């Protein structure tokens, strides 16, 4: 009880105790009233929504499940009135949809790549599993090399190629091969590495950075590339499968994964470049980003495939898929850069000042303070880019690379399976596959977002 | 301008620190700074001895924050020299990093890193800048968190703490680098009145340990209690500089008198 006086003064005698909230909104009926029928407009919207659901879902289910044909070995099974999806068609074309024209006896190789990828990716995505560092190293460094060797067959004689083109002492001594290793090339390579490292060290030292660490990093890049060349040179006895024969989901995943893995670091670098205080770096980043954002992906692919060879010296004809990969990666990097820049702009100046005042270097500040926060903020945008990249891979069809959708369309032409429902079945299947990947990415991003949302935790 | 300088005779300045072995911690000589056309700092001359505690006050926009932010190069001065801990501030990145390692700073809005726990906020710089092993850094961080009386919050995130607690974490975070000089840029201005006291107490205990401190603040009680000298700035220049007793009881310059009459009711 409190004391209230006529003159408006008030003195509280006891503090109020907290009470439970009113129970009106609890239970199914309460929830429905609150969420579905809270006003006339909401009631109408609810009814329209239910109507749309009834209009779309039952026929879809009927086509894909109830009326669908599940067995058969030719178009005969799928003829007739009121026939739903012709699943035997998908079954018959399944190998083609997954591997394209990859030789049947070599299909174990993509299978191993798929399995390895999944085995490495799943533990990487589950936050509570240990050894993230090793896992990431395996997935981002070892896996691409293994996948490359497995899928192409390796043994591409990279050292011979490089030596012939860039080797300065090639002119003097020619190839000196001992035990299958081109000694002259490696002498040349090591000399080049040392010279470049010294040059980089000198330049960095002059502009005020740490010369030894710059030289060391350069040497490490050379060493890594050297290991790569060495691995590419080894003959594992795998028959060579040229990328022209690749197709189907294999190509879709190769392009999408390469694009995704390459575009994020490239995009971050470009975004940082665009916000740099160094005018040349900033200008180059802006020019790069605006150029790639200003042209459609189809143009990029077309240019890379049909026009680039005209500008390159005769004989230099990089692989078609490789050219498409580079085009897709650079294209999506430009978009990624703008997404990341949005995140960088959202970080208050105080975070930079706090980090700088503690003596962190620029790269430590970016790596430990700014980027973790900026990237967390723009996860929706990043995943948006990933998803649109995944779906844009279908555009490689116009440069005669048969990805999943391309392979599907090719299989429509098979007269063995020509039926009124073949087309619908094929696209329904394609829809399911693309939805599986895109929805998966979307859900996972929501999970990550919730997990990383520490700043607003109260 | 020259008149207001002479208000504090040199003899008196030296009298404050008679103990031998005192060297200069921070020295600003003829420092000027412009923001575009705007002249924010005009001929700043200041010598801070080791262990000395300076409080800087003045109206907003008078350049007091800019001045102390020049000391660790969050702002660049365009004329004059700044020597911190015997190192002259130039464009040389190595020198700037060296100075920032020795100079701790606390901000008005704390600037804690929201994606890291309190403990991680405190261990970050010792681990990455001082190259301290993680375990030692955590021990050190817990030591300073205990000192600012919030060891139990170590595993929470900054967003879960009150403003006063956040500012004390910010002080602990700066102390983890074992700085020789501490800069405070209005550390209590963004706090609820109830929380000002806990932050000031932390700062007082820091002062009692002999830390060299430069504080931009309007907490005149704090100035009276711990400052060796109080500086009043207006329009980008130092108007008056004196011991707190003399500064508050007998301000010399008209502008100082006006300012003090506004804030001391």
UniProtKB/TrEMBL annotation, chain A:
Source taxon at top rank: Bacteria
InterPro entries named in the record: AA_ABC_transptr_permease_3TM, ArtM/GltK/GlnP/TcyL/YhdX-like, MetI-like, MetI-like_sf
Keyword Membrane (UniProt): yes
Domain ABC transmembrane type-1, chain residue ranges per copy: 249-445
Listed GO biological process terms: amino acid transport
Location in or out of the cell: Cell inner membrane; Cell membrane
Topology relative to the membrane: Multi-pass membrane protein
PROSITE patterns found in the cross-reference section: ABC_TM1
Gene Ontology CC annotation, any one: ATP-binding cassette (ABC) transporter complex
Main location as per UniProt: membrane
Key words of the record: Cell membrane, Membrane, Transmembrane, Transmembrane helix, Transport
A matching Pfam family: BPD_transp_1
Transmembrane segments annotated in the record for this chain: 36-57, 112-130, 136-154, 166-183, 189-207, 219-240, 246-271, 283-308, 320-344, 365-387, 421-441
Keyword Transmembrane: yes
GO molecular function, one term: transmembrane transporter activity
Family note: Belongs to the binding-protein-dependent transport system permease family. HisMQ subfamily.
Protein name: Amino acid ABC transporter permease
Native source species: Ancylobacter mangrovi
Lineage: Bacteria, Pseudomonadati, Pseudomonadota, Alphaproteobacteria, Hyphomicrobiales
Automatic annotation (TrEMBL), chain B:
Record-level Gene Ontology MF annotations: ABC-type amino acid transporter activity; ATP binding; ATP hydrolysis activity
Keyword check for Transport: yes
SMART domains in the cross-refs: AAA
Domain ABC transporter: 26-260
UniProt xrefs under InterPro entries: AAA+_ATPase (IPR003593), ABC_ATPase_HisP-typ (IPR030679), ABC_transporter-like_ATP-bd (IPR003439), ABC_transporter-like_CS (IPR017871), MetN_ABC_transporter-like (IPR050086), P-loop_NTPase (IPR027417)
Keyword annotations of the record: ATP-binding, Nucleotide-binding, Transport
Pfam families the record matches: ABC_tran
Domain of life: Bacteria
SUPFAM superfamilies reported in the protein's UniProt record: P-loop containing nucleoside triphosphate hydrolases (SSF52540)
Family membership: Belongs to the ABC transporter superfamily.
Annotated protein name in UniProt: Amino acid ABC transporter ATP-binding protein
Species assigned in the record: Ancylobacter mangrovi
